[in-house]
Amino acid sequence: MISIIAAFQFLTIFPALIKRMFTPQEMGRAAGWFPLVGVVLGALLYAVHYFAQMAFPASISAALTLIAWVLLTRALHLDGFMDTCDGLFGGWTPERRLEIMKDSRVGAFGVAGGALALLLKYTALASSLNTSTLRQAQDGAALSTSLLPALVTSAVLARWGMTLAIFAFPYAREHGLGREMKDNIGWMQIILATCTALIVAWFASGMMGLIAFALASLTLWLGARYILRLILGLTGDSYGALCEGIELVVLLFFAARGVL
Questions:
Q1: Neighbouring C-beta atoms of residue 259, cutoff 10 Å
Q2: Other CB atoms within 10 A of residue 139 CB
């Protein structure tokens, strides 16, 4: 239970049930539960969307869902994505890139990358909502539930990608929370996270969920390989960037599926 609580406290704004620092061993075990956090997050996001669409058009419902997405995760992954953009594109050597990523200030590359990522997420959500609203009107159905698979699947697969990235790729720094997690994660956490991701993807989206799993795997591999070319290791910011990237790719996949 401590590892589950650690996963939720680390990745979300959920209340702190354990008011102390978690040990490195507890954080390593917590990584196996990251996809479970994605299940709860996706369900909460759908609840926001469900009630928002009662009063607002699709565009506003999509915006409110995206705002909730950022707030529920404390903008943790978005911050990592922006810091990664600053470091990768703002430095000329691996050392300088790592130095920039460690700086809490956000530069031009980070602002541009974060804005574009949010814009694409909003567009994907709004597109999916418009398509489901059209089908809802044609079928005479009640409030649409078609966005639930996209939200749950994207949130789960992105956090599965973080778990795998921690385990599979080298870490760039000698110290830090990411180093502690990497040193204490094992095959049990990978098996748990992968089984959770596959089961949820299948039950949420069927064959489309398995295709999304393959796309998430490809995004993780390509993103991690690109980062490793520039800084020779991943960081905590890199994990957040990969999470954002997988969420975006899966959302775009579901949006394209709705249009096609």
A1: 10
A2: 9
Residue with tokens 């928002």: 52
What single-letter amino acid sits at 7? Answer: A
Give the model confidence (pLDDT) of 173-224 as tens digits: 888 888 999 999 999 999 999 999 999 999 999 999 999 999 999 999 999 9
Exposure of 129 in the CB half-sphere (CA atoms within 13 A): 25
Residue 240: C-alpha distances to residues 81, 136, 191, 243 (Å): 6, 35, 21, 5
Residue-wise pLDDT for 120-159, tens only, equals: 999 999 887 765 554 554 454 444 456 889 999 999 999 9
Per DSSP, 20 falls in state S
pTM to 2 decimal places: 0.93
In residues, how long is the chain?
A: 260
Cα torsion angle, 13, 14, 20, 23, sign: negative
Question: Number of C-alpha atoms within 13 angstroms, CB side, residue 4?
Answer: 5
Burial class (CB in 10 A: 0-12, 13-18, 19+), 144: buried
Residue 71 to residue 94: CA distance in whole angstroms: 32
Q: What is the Cα–Cα distance from 119 to 7, expressed in whole angstroms?
A: 28
Question: What distance in Å separates the CA atoms of residue 97 and residue 233, rounded to the nearest whole number?
Answer: 11
Going by C-beta distance under 8 Å and a sequence separation of 6 or more, which residues neighbour residue 9?
16, 17, 18, 22
